[in-house]
Write a structure and sequence with these properties.
Blueprint lengths: L10 E7 L3 H12 L7 E5 L4 H8 L4 E5 L8 H9 L4 E6 L2 E3 L3 H11 L3 E10 L4 E2 L1 H7 L12 E2 L8 E4 H7 L12 H10 L3 E12 L10 H15 L2 H17 L4 H17 L6 H11 L26
Parallel strand pairs: 1-2, 1-4, 2-3, 6-10
Antiparallel strand pairs: 4-9, 5-10, 6-7, 6-9, 8-10
Helix pairs in contact: 1-2, 6-7, 8-9, 8-10, 9-10
Length: 316
């Protein structure tokens, strides 16, 4: 009789969830079945007692963190701080990893000391359709780097990536000013600014099974955070152009634009106080990725290898 492989020991999975115990249970069962047998840290952003019971009864979970409020993407920072392994993979309560992908990611991170974060190919739903963001990341115009695997990018999907724990913490993790919605671009900028590589490697596979419609009211957050990210890290003319586009959208009455503009204005003083422009080499890469902007109803941003997204994870 063959026995299960020994736990990998190099990688923890961080899961954020909010008030969706059935979906979370499916994710935890999938993670528990992986040959890598990773420890799982769950951050419960909700107040649902059923979620607490699911987590406490599940053998895959090694730690449950309950902040007592919805921390949004910052919940992932809490999980990373508690991880005892050198690498951390991320899942939401509607996503998980394909067998072997976590071991492959750990091997890549072992072999490439400058690799700070590697983004996986994401397959959506029961038919395993390619998330449109896969093609965007694969087409990144950034030149390949000899000491990094895959395609260099400045964007990824938060529920389909693996990070070096030290690099993630060195970059500060997810920024609290953004809370949720297109928060990945700022982290990618900050990793690159710290000298860490960020790449897309399609040999790694994550699964995503979003509920139909997801959570409502997310479009304005993506639009808001695109502008705030530019204020925080990019030259003022770039941020001003994005602000002007959002203002024009608000004047036209586009859904969510007015709310996004109000929230940008409310957060602008904090963004200016925390502003830290990118190093010249990273700004050059960001400009290369900017390209012609393509409007999107859901976010007012643009899909590119530097950020944007297609199928939004619905947790937070």
């Amino acid at each position: 009789m063959s026995s299960r492989p020994a736990p990998d020991g190099r990688i923890t999975v961080a899961v954020i969830t909010r008030d969706r115990p059935e979906s979370l249970l499916r994710t935890l069962d999938a993670l528990a079945a992986l040959p890598e047998r990773p420890p799982v840290v769950v951050v419960d952003n909700g107040r649902d007692g059923a979620t607490r019971e699911v987590v406490r009864a599940h053998p895959a979970v090694t730690r449950l963190i309950r902040p007592g409020a919805n921390t949004g993407a910052v919940g992932r920072n809490l999980a990373v701080r508690q991880a005892a392994t050198p690498y951390v993979a991320f899942s939401d309560d509607d996503s998980w990893w394909e067998p072997g992908s976590l071991r492959r990611a750990a091997d890549l991170l072992d072999a490439c000391p400058r690799l700070g974060l590697v983004a996986a190919r994401t397959l959506v739903g029961p038919d395993r359709a390619d998330d449109p963001l896969n093609a965007v990341l694969a087409a990144s115009p950034l030149p390949r780097e000899p000491d990094l695997p895959g395609r260099p990018v400045l964007g990824f999907l938060a529920c389909a990536c693996v990070a070096r724990r030290d690099a993630f913490l060195d970059a500060g993790g997810y920024h609290p000013l953004l809370f949720f919605g297109g928060e990945e671009t700022l982290l990618a900028y900050d990793l690159a600014a710290g000298g860490w590589g960020v790449t897309y490697e399609p040999s790694l596979t994550a699964r995503h099974a979003p509920e139909p419609g997801g959570r409502s009211g997310r479009g304005h957050q993506v639009r808001r955070n695109e502008v705030l990210t530019l204020v925080l890290r990019r030259p003022f003319p770039v941020a001003l152009r994005a602000g002007a586009r959002l203002t024009a959208s608000a004047v036209r009455g586009e859904p969510g634009a007015r709310r996004a503009l109000r929230e940008v204005a409310a957060r602008l003083p904090a963004a200016l106080a925390r502003r830290r422009p990118l190093p010249a080499r990273v700004e050059r890469a960001a400009r290369l990725l900017d390209g012609p902007r393509r409007s999107r109803r859901s976010g007012g941003g643009h899909e590119r290898a530097g950020g944007g997204r297609s199928t939004r994870p619905s947790t937070g």
